[in-house]
Structure formats: structure tokens, C-alpha cells
Amino acid sequence: MMRYAFVMQLKAGCEKAYLERHQQIWPELATLLTQYGIANYQIFLHPQTLQLFASFDAPSSFNSAGLKTEPLMHKWWDSMAQYMITQKEEEEDSNEPQSIELTEMFYMS
């Protein structure tokens, strides 16, 4: 298993709606993520900057490119675009959230 971590940006005033959407995550989306080997998925909010820190565990064979082509993933991103900064804001044709992958600097189990 490998740990993956990244940050995304929430739009101002969207904290409550974002939280509610994730408390009611679509069961079929949770199933899809599990099928790709994702486990222990967590998202934390930095209240002053509205940055979202996300992390999850997945096998070293995790196929992130494949997940990004899944129609259900695009449907979720489209439904969340009103709350987050997306790739469309970078002149790309996707509502995938803008994200910056983080490099692990320390881990203690």
C-alpha cells in the first residue's frame, strides 16, 4: 500500500455544502473508489485558507489515470464544481478539482 496526499481549493462560503455532499457521498462512487483500491480516504479543511487536504491509501498499482476517465467520476466532479476550484479555471475541459500532489516528508505508525 502507498499513501497519496494532495490539496484542493474550496470556494468561499461553500464549507457547509461541501461537507453535506461528502456526508451523503453516492454509494456507487464509494464502490468505484473501492474498486480502484482506495481506502482510508480522508479530507480535512484548513478554515482560514479554505484549502482541502486529502489523503488515501491505495496499492502501488493504483491507476489514477483510469479513475479519471470513469464517467461516474466526471459526474461527481461536475456536481461539485460549484464548490471548488476546478481544471476548467485553468482553460481545460474538465471539472476535475485543481489539486497539487504532496510529497511525504515524515510518517510515524
Mean pLDDT: 96
Could you say what the CATH topology is called?
Alpha-Beta Plaits
From the N-terminal CA to the C-terminal CA, the straight-line distance is: 14 Å
| DSSP, total strands | 4
Strand residue percentage: 15-25%
Strand count, sense and closure of the main sheet? 4 strands, antiparallel
Helix and strand sequence: EHHEEHHE
Annotation field: number of helices = 4
CATH architecture: 2-Layer Sandwich
Provide the low-confidence segments as ranges.
none
Percent helix, as a range, is 25-40%
Q: How do the strands of the widest beta sheet line up side by side?
A: 2-3-1-4
Please compute the radius of gyration using only Cα atoms. 14 Å
Number of domains: 1
Structural class: alpha+beta
What's the CATH C level?
Answer: Alpha Beta
Inertia-based shape: globular
Write the layout of secondary structure elements.
Elements lengths: L1 E8 L5 H9 L3 H9 L3 E8 L4 E8 L5 H4 L3 H10 L19 E2 L8
Antiparallel strand pairs: 1-3, 1-4, 2-3
Task: Give a written overview of the molecule.
The protein has helices at residues 15-23, 27-35, 64-67, 71-80; strands at residues 2-9, 39-46, 51-58, 100-101. With 109 residues, the chain is α+β, with helices and mostly antiparallel strands. Strands 2-3-1-4 form a 4-stranded antiparallel beta sheet, with no helix packed on it. Strand 2 (39-46) and strand 3 form a beta hairpin. The radius of gyration is 14 Å and the shape is globular. The model has no long low-confidence stretch (mean pLDDT 96).
